[in-house]
Design brief:
Strand content: under 5%
Radius of gyration: 19 Å
Number of domains: 2
Order of helices and strands: HHHHHHHHH
CATH superfamily of the largest domain: RNA polymerase sigma factor, region 2, helix turn helix motif
Number of helices: 9
Distance between the termini: 44 Å
CATH class of the largest domain: Mainly Alpha
Length: about 190
């Protein structure tokens, strides 16, 4: 690659990829639940985006293209993750640990402002969602994608997107113990 071509590619990368870096990171954090894992996921996503930047034909679709790469990288990492290193689900934790968790929760409640505590509870609730629901919720509410865009990104029918969002929101309401009005969104 010639120096001019390389600098042009770097400029395109900065304009079409790095512009959405914070959006990609937020989605990665919601998918993984861990800052270090999210950073690794974003790094791999950016690397793949740079390598395949010439495939981005429509710069207006850069954000959706990046989320598709992010999803692909995430799913590949989940498939490759050794069984011994599987993440713990809150459903797998026994009652005695939940009591300790409640004690920690009370301590955090005294330290954290209410809005930060709510964000933390919402983050944990999203991580508890089954992956298909979590993806739909993240793309709709964090990514800001429409039903049609989500359907294209996930390669599923729009009706399936609507169903996953409905079921995901219902589970979130259950996890958070909130009334339905807190999680409704019209698209």
């Amino acid at each position: 690659m010639e120096p001019d071509e390389r600098s042009e590619k770097v400029l395109r990368f900065e304009e079409h990829v790095l512009a959405y870096l914070s959006d990609i990171y937020r989605a990665a954090l919601r998918l993984t639940g861990q800052a270090a894992d999210a950073e690794d996921l974003v790094q791999e996503t950016c690397l793949r985006a740079f390598r395949s930047l010439e495939q981005l034909r429509n710069p207006g679709a850069a954000r959706a293209w990046l989320f598709a790469i992010l999803r692909s990288v995430f799913l590949r990492q989940v498939e490759r993750e050794p069984r011994g290193r599987a993440r713990l689900s809150l459903d797998d934790i026994d009652g005695s640990l939940l009591t300790a968790s409640e004690v920690l929760h009370d301590a955090y409640e005294r330290v954290l402002p209410p809005e930060q505590l709510l964000r933390q509870e919402a983050r944990q609730a999203i991580l508890r969602l089954p992956l298909p629901y979590r993806e739909a919720i993240i793309l709709a509410h964090i990514g800001g994608f429409s039903y049609r865009e989500i359907a294209r990104l996930l390669a599923i029918p729009t009706g399936t997107v609507m169903s996953r969002l409905f079921r995901g929101r219902r589970l979130l309401r259950t996890y958070l113990g909130q009334s339905p009005s807190h999680l409704e969104s019209s698209r």
